[in-house]
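User: Show me an example of a complex going from sequences to structure tokens.

Assistant: Sure. Here are the input components:
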Amino acid sequence: MILGRQVYSFLANNYPGVMTGANGDETVKVTILMIALVVAAVPTVSLADDFLEAPVLSGGTIVVSREGCLEKVYGQTYEEVVAFYRDALKDQPDLKFRDRGNTMVIEDFGNRPWHSITVSSIDGASVKVAITKDSWSWVLGSLTVRFIGVFAVLAVLYLSMSLSGAIITSFLSRKELGTIRAGQTLSREKA
Amino acid sequence: MNSYEMLDMLNGILNSTGLFALTWRCPVMWAIAGLFIYLAVVRKFEPLLLLPIGFGIFVVNFPLVPLMGTSEAGYPELLRVFYHYGLEWEVIPCVMFLGLGAMTDFGPLIANPKTLLIGAGAQLGVFVTFIGTILFGFTLKEAASVGIIGGADGPTTIYLTQHLAPHMLGANALAAYSYMAMVPLIQPPIMRWLTSDGERKIRMRQLREVSKLEKTLYPLLACLVIAILVPAVVPLMGMFMLGNLMRESGVVARLTNTAENDLINIVTIFLGISVGATMHGDKFLNAKPLLVFAMGLVSFAVCTFGGILTVKVMNLFLKEKINPLIGSAGVSAVPMAARVSQLIGQEYDRKNYLLMHAMGPNLAGVVGTAAAAGMLLAMFE
């Protein structure tokens, strides 16, 4: 209300024509002005607080801003920013917090429009936060790598089995050959 | 006792029955349970599992039955206990794998280890279905648990689903076991479609004899590789390899006998009824389980396709060609998928014996599905 009165006084002093009503009821005008200010402020606040429905810490400097990516740099500590995201996302299911020392990657495995929030410390002095959009390229890339990974696991097993099989077979055939030779020597001696 | 008290008592008795709490969901779920019991009893489709699963579905879909809830004193009810300790604690799938390991002869795989690659190729459906399932609005974790159905390995499906999407356990397990039972119906058309007449008649050289030493060392070697590369599935594969080591070492015949008979039978009962008990009408009757069944079928078909395709690719580089019909056995369903390869092969050449050759990729499929599950677990953990 105080803010409304101050704005009203400013407008009344500078633009007397605009703020002069028919009945001159100041309280009604101040109330209308307050409502108008609140209504005007709401979208501003919501735009500043999320990107692709991911929470965005207010303040900071925008480094990159495009459709699928938002990067901001903050003058806060890494711990403060991480604590903000931990708190903001604490009730959200299907999220994974991956702590990699100076970087925290928060991945979404649900159906949210964003895919990841990466909080990384820059020389301990400032923190960069990057929010990326959910994308098919990540899903396809990740699955392709994992499918190849299945081949890799079984290929390693294949190679180790082939190698151990060859060693065991040669060991057993040598042993068998040794037994045959020993048998032959024994029979020669007997003869 | 006056008439008012008498009426009050009768009213109390009537309210304690389930009559007034019946909803339309109950008979629908009884019909679904009846279908699975029919498939088990009459059609002999995986009766060891579909029978207890069917009964589990039937019995939990009565109102007021104290089975899957918590008692007034705060104790879990009977089937909740089985479910909690057996499935939520992931005991049953691992103990089942112990028994399966004790039953399995890895000889055909050791004799021809390149068939391991067929087991890897047959996991194609797991990953393709993953993508398809996301398109239907499933979360990534749910999609992974649906994709693994194509691997045709019940315990692995249960293990992965319990980790990633426990609310889908009933539908996923049921789809996995149903499709495993339907291998002889699902695979042959795909096998015929993907192979030429000449390919189906390829005869393979008889497998070499595998020494006892190799068979004894195999579970240790496989466990070593898996524990290093995909540690997430060691609870499953470790138990599998322990069962196999018990079998092949030959020094613990009593334990092997217990693992492959009594123990696996006991856990099968608890597994079946616990899985069935998760399928309460309130949760089950919506579009998701239907989509799970549809996508599970897609996964199974693509896995079959992947196995055959892998053999065809391998044949481009091999001197001694592999019969592509054994590629379909790369899904794990042991030994059903290998038997199907044998049957289809003999339709075209009566003297072509593919069974032992198909057992290689079949066993590789078990390891491949576990590796795929490990990869998917690592994606989220």
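The lines above are the inputs; the final block is the predicted structure for all two components together. Chain B is about 70% helix and 0% strand.
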